[in-house]
């Protein structure tokens, strides 16, 4: 079965009720992806499930749709009946938007809690009663410790991007949260990769889970073409600018390792006439949401990000991801380039590899079971690749940016709400 799409299976064949099918149709989807076609019918049975698939293949709908249906069939309650744990604030917002989109024709209430924003407003929403809670482990633990939240009525527990939660050190928080939920519940674990740690986690809290794994979960989607160019570290800013100018990419997501590097690279691109902004964990929650929304809405061309944006970031029609620095954790490479080539669309990933990073490249190749070769830098002419240039540094011949200036952004005092706008867009 193709990793992106199922074999012409319609959503109507998955066991979903008409209310949800209408919401799916309203959202513009006609056929489920492969992971959705396999996971949704199994999750609807109430069995425990652990599923792994390439990033960008629709894992979120694989649990939001079954949860909405199962809760709609249960007796109404003021208790939180479904909990979805996610590693980052950005992913919490996106999962919430998915519940709101697919639950548009239901009476179920969903909210999200995460750090970086005032807890009081989140508590007011919880006190009004919600059916589904999407949460980051840190904020949920804070609420549990203060006795602001009770989970004794929980019926369904989801760990989304479970491998990332372990990478971020949430193992103890997850274990503590497990002590606050009923033993009798459905457990769903979704992850882009299945590591030994993930399998141990599943063994600790799941009951004979059905395992769904589509081909190689550690590989990138086959819709993403991957290129690796040799670049000495001091030359990376020049080469990055050359690639963006020469390739005439309308939108680019650039990944760096550190917050300092994100700011520096964005500033250098701006100096070179490229509209760029940085996003990382030092930005407050409002700034991060606003920056992501402005990037999606084409107010600027290049987003320079640390791995805080690698998971769950869903940007329609993102043509290019650039690894300015290769990640030290090989799995992060898969998640980074998974921001492009989503939902069956074509995408491209370019990595700038300095001599010290060749070992990292080898470990990435081992993970995705693919031979990764370094290619000569391309020569661009009018946005097209004309020939390979090995010795001539292309940055010397690049011209200043002549692209159209970005649209004027709305003032920060505008009545537009980044969070609510994000929810409406999905």
The percent of residues in helical segments reads 25-40%
For the biggest sheet, the summary is:
7 strands, parallel
> Total strand count, please?
15
Q: Specify Rg, calculated over alpha carbons.
A: 22 Å
* Beta-strand share of residues: 15-25%
Widest sheet: strand ordering: 3-4-2-5-6-1-7
Would you tell me the overall average pLDDT? 83
Describe this protein with a few key phrases.
15 helices, disordered C terminus, disordered N terminus, 15 strands, 426 residues, alpha/beta, seven-stranded parallel sheet, six-stranded parallel sheet, single chain
Quick take:
36% of the residues lie in helices and 17% in strands. By secondary structure, the protein is α/β, with parallel strands linked by helices.
Structure description:
The chain is of the alpha/beta class and about 425 residues long. Helices cover about 35% and strands about 15% of the residues. The chain is built from 15 helices and 15 strands. Strand 14 (about 375-380) and strand 15 form a beta hairpin. The radius of gyration is 22 Å and the shape is globular.
């Amino acid at each position: 079965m193709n990793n992106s799409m199922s074999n012409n299976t319609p959503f109507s064949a998955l066991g979903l009720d008409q209310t949800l099918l209408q919401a799916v149709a309203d959202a513009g989807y006609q056929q489920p992806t492969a992971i959705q076609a396999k996971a949704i019918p199994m999750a609807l049975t109430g069995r425990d499930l652990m599923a792994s698939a390439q990033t960008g293949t629709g894992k979120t709908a694989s649990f939001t749709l079954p949860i909405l249906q199962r809760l709609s069939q249960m007796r109404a309650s003021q208790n939180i009946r479904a909990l979805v744990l996610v590693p980052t604030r950005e992913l919490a917002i996106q999962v919430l938007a998915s519940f709101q989109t697919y639950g548009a024709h239901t009476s179920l209430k969903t909210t999200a809690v995460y750090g970086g924003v005032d807890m009081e407003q989140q508590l007011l929403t919880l006190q009004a009663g919600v059916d589904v809670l999407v949460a980051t482990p840190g904020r949920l633990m804070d609420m549990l410790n203060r006795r602001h939240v009770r989970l004794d009525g929980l019926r369904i527990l989801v760990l989304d991007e479970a491998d990332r939660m372990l990478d971020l050190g949430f193992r103890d928080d997850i274990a503590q949260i497990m002590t606050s939920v009923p033993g009798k519940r459905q457990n769903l674990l979704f992850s882009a990769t299945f590591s030994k740690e993930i399998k141990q986690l599943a063994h600790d809290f799941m009951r004979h889970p059905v395992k769904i794994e589509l081909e190689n979960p550690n590989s990138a989607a086959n819709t993403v073409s991957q290129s690796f160019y040799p670049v000495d570290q001091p030359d990376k800013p020049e080469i990055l600018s050359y690639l963006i100018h020469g390739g005439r990419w309308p939108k680019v997501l650039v990944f760096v390792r550190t917050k300092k590097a994100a700011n520096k690279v964005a500033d250098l691109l701006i100096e070179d006439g490229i509209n760029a902004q940085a996003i990382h964990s030092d930005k407050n929650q409002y700034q991060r949401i606003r920056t992501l929304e402005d990037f999606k809405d084409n107010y600027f061309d290049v987003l320079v990000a640390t791995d805080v944006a690698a998971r769950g970031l869903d940007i329609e029609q993102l043509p290019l991801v650039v690894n300015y620095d290769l990640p030290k954790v090989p799995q992060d490479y898969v998640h980074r380039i998974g921001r492009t080539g989503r939902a069956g669309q074509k995408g491209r990933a370019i990595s700038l590899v300095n001599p010290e990073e060749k070992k990292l490249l080898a470990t990435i190749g081992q993970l995705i079971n693919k031979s990764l070769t370094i290619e000569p830098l391309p020569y661009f002419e009018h946005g097209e690749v004309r020939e390979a240039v090995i010795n001539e540094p292309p940055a010397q011949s690049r011209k200043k940016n002549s692209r159209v200036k970005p649209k004027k952004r709305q003032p920060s005092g505008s009545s537009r709400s980044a969070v609510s706008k994000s929810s409406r867009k999905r």
